[in-house]
Specification:
This protein is of the alpha/beta class and 283 residues long. The protein is built from nine helices and nine strands. The protein is 41% helix and 16% strand. Its EC number is 2.7.11.32, 2.7.4.27.
Length: 283
């Protein structure tokens, strides 16, 4: 039975142990624990991950270690009998624990009036969506920053924007969701490619950003590069943004998304909603 240790913190003093037990990879539990820990001031945390746990004997060994280290246990187990065993043993050992999958699966079972399959392999199944994401990622990498316009009509989303408005990170995030993305830089002195106006204009979105925020982002970038001051000049940035807004006015079917102080995830969701509507699937 293999386990993986991950340390988060600055010191080995006062380390709190979190044991992740899963019949899969444990990634869902890790993501949830990390999301929860963000809400607390920095602590020294050691994650110990036990993947592919599917017997009571394995659970016995892990929980004995968790009890010894006075750890917290989070688990994702799809089989009801294993979840029940976990609860009972945690109570017996007086271990703080959290069942991540159990409650929502049971509530969904009641809602759908159906029994869960209890198959841990379903999450790891290689299906059509997996291949679609791989294809989208390869397509997006090959069409980053306007370097390749072949197959432009195959794109699900075309992103336009000035330098440093988060075109590339947003494109790659969308690709991971399965969208083929082309991103093309907007430079007022350089005409946009003619091919752009021959595709479905409804899948084109322009990214913009507050001028002062954009100036700070560009200034941060220029710490590592040499270039002229025109790139970070606020008046120039205002002119560039005005150019973008004029483009959108002339092309009424284009969408516009403001990325100011937004995460890549928020920007991506807004783009998808703008082009495909709010009912579009996000996973």
């Amino acid at each position: 039975m293999k386990n993986i240790d991950v340390f988060i913190g600055k010191s080995n003093d006062n380390v709190k142990r979190i044991f992740i037990i899963s019949d899969g990879t444990g990634q869902s539990a890790i993501n949830l624990m990390r999301a929860c820990l963000i809400q607390f001031e920095e602590h020294n945390i050691r994650f110990t991950i036990y993947p592919k746990i599917n017997t009571t004997e394995q659970i016995d060994k892990v929980l004995k270690s968790a009890r010894e280290h006075k750890g917290f246990v989070a688990f994702t187990l799809v089989k009801k009998e294993l979840r029940k065993y976990m609860h009972e043993l945690c109570h017996e050992y007086d271990i703080m624990h959290f069942d991540i999958l159990g409650p929502p699966v049971e509530k969904l079972s009641k809602f759908l009036n159906a029994k869960p399959l209890e198959n841990p392999n379903l999450l790891r199944r290689v299906d059509d969506k997996y291949f679609k994401r791989i294809e989208a990622i390869e397509f997006t990498i090959n069409h980053d920053d306007g370097k390749n316009l072949k197959g432009l009509n195959e794109a699900d989303i075309v992103i336009l924007g000035l330098s440093r408005v988060s075109k590339t990170p947003t494109s790659f995030y969308l690709a991971q969701l399965g969208y083929k993305v082309v991103n093309i830089p907007i430079v007022p002195e350089i005409p946009l490619p003619k091919e752009l106006f021959k595709i479905d204009q409804r899948k084109i979105v322009c990214l913009v950003m507050d001028p002062e925020v954009l100036q700070k982002v560009r200034q941060e970038r220029m710490k590592h590069y040499r270039g002229n001051n025109n790139y970070t000049d606020l008046r120039r940035i205002f002119e560039e943004l005005e150019f973008v807004y004029d483009l959108v006015k002339k092309n009424r079917q284009w969408h516009i998304v403001d990325t100011t102080n937004k995460s890549v995830e928020e920007t991506a969701r807004e783009i998808i909603s703008s082009i495909y509507g709010r009912e579009q699937e996000f996973f």
